[in-house]
């Protein structure tokens, strides 16, 4: 009489790491939530706003170290990324569209014609004469705008004087455009960035352009609400009108300020 019949069990599947499973594939690098490589291994640069198809800046061990940039027209700009700014989108005035979440300002005014007019306008913009001609007091750490220059612009009288501390973010000293942009520092009534450019068009016209994005940073600018963008627009037009007078004065033999030719900086020869 035979005993109970024993069932044969199927062989268990090989466990991970078991040498019987054959050669294993090489380990893959960890990926982020979107399937990109580990950020620690990334060598690219990242922008701070979706304002163009290019990256915003390359990180540097020195946050005030200027970076040279040349666009497709051959114009060379210099940028810096200083500490102390009260906004994140550093350098966003160099391209369009401007970042969201801010009031936007774009003013364009004709101030003259010809290369001499460009040189006069450029010198007045970067040497602070344009701002001073508007009645503002300007205190700057350099005679001409340079990346990293500290600037304080103040308007008003006595206790009603408003002080606006800024730092120059980028400059343009090229054959067809001259100017700079500054960003707001802690203590500024607003947070954001503003650029001032004189540009020579193909037909010889010299245009003055103000481009800015900003939003209130202090209680009184928040309280003023929609009056602030109106005041900013009026002041930008005031700057343009004053710049046009400086250019006209130079064209008629007045003292329009220093001039230079081409892309050479006035203080470097």
Can you give me a brief rundown of this structure?
The protein has 269 residues and is α+β, with helices and mostly antiparallel strands.
Q: How would the blueprint of this fold be written?
A:
Elements: E1 67-70, E2 76-79, E3 103-113, H1 115-126, H2 129-133, E4 137-140, E5 150-155, E6 162-173, E7 177-184, E8 190-200, E9 205-216, H3 219-224, H4 227-251
Antiparallel strand pairs: 1-2, 2-6, 3-9, 4-5, 5-6, 6-7, 7-8, 8-9
Helix pairs in contact: 1-4
What class would the helix/strand composition place it in? Answer: alpha+beta
**Largest β sheet strand count, sense and barrel closure:** 9 strands, antiparallel
Helix content: 10-25%
The parts where pLDDT drops under 50 for at least 5 residues are: 16-66, 255-269
Shape: globular
Q: List the secondary-structure elements in sequence, H or E.
A: EEEHHEEEEEEHH
Q: Could you describe the 3D structure shown?
A:
This protein is of the alpha+beta class and 269 residues long. Helix content is 18%, strand content 27%. The protein has 4 helices and 9 strands. The protein has helices at 115-126, 129-133, 219-224, 227-251; strands spanning 67-70, 76-79, 103-113, 137-140, 150-155, 162-173, 177-184, 190-200, 205-216. Strands 1, 2, 3, 4, 5, 6, 7, 8 and 9 form a 9-stranded antiparallel sheet that branches. Strand 1 and strand 2 form a beta hairpin. Helix 1 packs across helix 4. The relative contact order is 0.16.
